Structure formats: structure tokens, C-alpha cells
Amino acid sequence: MGGTSEAADRARLLALARSGDQRAFADLVGPYLRELHVHCYRMLGSFQDAEDVIQEVLLRAWRHLDGFENRSSVRQWLYRIATNRCLTFQARAATAPAGAGPVPPPSNAPEVEVVALQPYPGSRLVLLPDHDPQARYDLRESVDLAFLSAIQLLPARQRAVLLLRDVLAFSAAETAGLLDTSVAGVNSALQRGRAALHEHRATGRLRPGRRPESSAAERSILRSYLAAWHACDIPALVALLREDARLTMPPFPLAYRGRDAIARFLATVPARGRLDQITLVPARANVQPAVAAYVRDPGGRRATAYGIMVLTIDGSAIGEITGFADPALFPFFGLPGHLEA
Fold first, then answer.
1. Pair 16, 63 in one domain
2. What CA–CA distance (Å, rounded) separates 126 from 135?
3. pLDDT at 220
4. pLDDT of 195-247, one tens digit each?
5. Which of 166, 171, 184, 194 is deepest in the core (most CB within 10 A)?
6. 230 is a domain residue
7. Are 36 and 78 in contact (CB under 8 A)?
8. How high is the pLDDT of residue 94?
9. Does one domain contain both 271 and 291?
């Protein structure tokens, strides 16, 4: 009975929307917007680009309602539009993002890093639908920054296939329909994408078990990180890291690996090592703890938004710090642009 009622409601909303009823259209597509936004983010690696593409998706869906033949679900139809808009968006994106300023070279040979990557506000992830048990990746893993960095290195259509099959658990036939390709083409792209991820796991960054021992352990690490930072205690900060911890700063294609390299970075780059001149405020991003950084003005009366650091907890230590020196992200996280002393 429930399925029949839902189908009748969808048919009613679809008829009203086709007649020009914008409220009915909003009710028809509204239940899927959060997950579609996250899908676009996974595809593009950018929260801001996902915002732009979702607007294109809504406009295209509104204009092409007559083309929806009701043979698939509204959700599947919207994923078809969203995935193809992401592919089009990437094809026309020709310019790389601008850097935030000079940084010293890493102490080791630079690794290949994705330059177009942004964090995702944690508040936007908590109300997503229940995870599909057939998917290979759960929510935490599928928005982990290391995972996103790895799949951004894949060709766009391989990335689309991997996300649709392994994250969203669409079947091979459904995925082929979404991408206007064959099942054989989908299976081939999936095999190549999985093989590329397997190679990336050899770096040690893609560990599926990477997560805090408990919520209490995560909170304790975050408190210790904030206290050590504000005390300008670099040894205490470094003690919170795994021996093989990494620090990266998209859009810079640089990586600092190991406690010693990260300690040298902290002692020389952020406010020239005067960490007490940077106020940190707790936040959440990508289902992980994060901090928003504010740099104090010369007079010390207020601090100005600078960037966001996402902390990847691996067991009882920090396995990775990913810094985003982009004040434009703060409104998406509901964070103010300034803090008063």
C-alpha cells in the first residue's frame, strides 16, 4: 500500500509541476537535493562548484519535466541529470584555482596532489538517507578527503562510474542508462577505476579503517590540538600526530610527510611560527573534526577569517591535516568572517 500511495503522490506532483506549479516541483525534487549535492561534490571535489551545478540541475529538470517518462524513479532521473552536468562542467573548466600565497617547498619530493579540492560542511552531511548496504563505501569513507583526492585523479567518466556503482550502489544496467553507455563499458570503467584506487592504497592514505577509536577519543584529540596550538607548543602538537602523518594544502600540489617535516612547517609558515597569533575555532567537515583559523589583526582587537583545517583521526592520533586557505568557505560553514577580541 505504501508504494502505491507514494507512486500516486509522485504522479500528482509531477502533473502539477508540468502545469507550471513550482511548489509541486520543489516537493517532487526536494527529498533528493542533499544527496545530489554531495554526489556533485564527490564528482567535482569542490563545494562551491557543487553549488553551481545543483542550480543547473534544478533548471534543467524544470525545463525538461515533459521528457521524464516515469519509467525510472525521480531520484534516478535526477542523478542522470546531475552526473552529466558534472561531466559537462568539468569539460568546460579550463582554468586552475588561484593559490593563496607562497609557501616553502616540502622537505621531501613533492607528491602528485589534486589542486581542486574543498572541504564539505559537516552540517550538510548529517541528514543524508541511510546508507545502501550494497555500496562498497559508507558515508564517512566516501567523503574522506584522501578518497576524494584519489578519485579526482581518475578520468571523469571512470570517476562517475565508480561513484554510481560503489558509493551509490546503482546496478551496472542503471549506471549504463544514466551515462548513455553500455553495461560492458560500465564494467570496464569500474575495473580500471578500482585498479587505480588499489594502487593509490599502496601510499597508505586510503585505509578504510581510518577513524577515531571513539567519539570521546576524537573530542579529546581536538581539545589537545586546540590547547597546544594556542599555547604555541609545537612539540605537543607533533605528539598528537602519527609518525607518518601528512599535511597538505590544496590548491598547492605539496605534501609534508612525517612529524619532523610538519614540525618545521608549523615553526616557520603559519604566522612565521607564532601560532598564538592564529585563533582556532572548532568545526566539522567531511564527517571529521576541523578547525577554522582566524589571524589576529596587528592591533589584536579582532581576528580575520583565514582558512579551515580538517583533521583525519586515525585510531588514537591524527593521520592527516588538510588545510584550505580560503576565507570564502566560511559562510558555507556558518562561520563569521571576523572574531572580536
1. yes
2. 18
3. 95
4. 999 988 887 777 766 777 788 889 999 999 999 999 999 999 999 999 999 99
5. 166
6. yes
7. yes
8. 46
9. yes
Note whether 226 and 317 are same-domain residues: yes
Can you give the residue range of the structural domain that contains 63? Answer: 1-94
Whether residues 224 and 280 share a domain: the answer is yes
Examine residue 104 and state whether it is found in any structural domain, yes or no. no
pTM of this structure: 0.90
What distance in Å separates the CA atoms of residue 238 and residue 321, rounded to the nearest whole number?
A: 11
What is d(CA 38, CA 57) in angstroms, rounded to the nearest whole number?
13
d(CA 185, CA 66): 29
> Percent of the chain, pLDDT > 90?
69
Q: Please tell me whether residue 159 adopts helix, strand or coil conformation.
A: helix
Place of cell 576565507: 327
Residue that terminates a domain, selected from 61, 94, 127: 94
What count of residues does the chain have? 341
157, three cell numbers: 567518466
Cis omega (within 30 of 0) on the bond before 251? yes
Grid cell in block for residue 124: 550538510
Q: Give the chain's mean pLDDT.
A: 89
Whichever domain contains 168, its CATH number is 1.10.10.10
C-alpha cell at 78: 535526477
* Lowest-confidence segment of 38-47, 140-149, 210-219 by average pLDDT: 210-219
Q: How far apart are CA 83 and CA 301, in angstroms?
A: 47
pLDDT of residue 100: 46
Domain at 74, CATH number: 1.10.1740.10
Rounded to an integer, what distance in angstroms lies between the CA atom of residue 165 and that of residue 175? Answer: 7
Cα→Cα distances 163→54, 96, 196, 301, Å: 17, 23, 14, 47
Q: Please give the average per-residue pLDDT across 8-27, as a whole number.
A: 91
CATH number where 232 lies: 3.10.450.50
**Helix axis angle, 74-92 relative to 33-44, nearest 10°?**
30
| Mean of pLDDT values over 297-310 | 91
- 108 domain-assigned: no
Give tens-digit pLDDT for 59-85: 999 999 988 877 778 999 999 999 999
- Angstrom distance (rounded) from CA 301 to CA 298: 8
Q: What pLDDT was estimated at residue 188?
A: 98
Into how many domains does the chain fold?
3
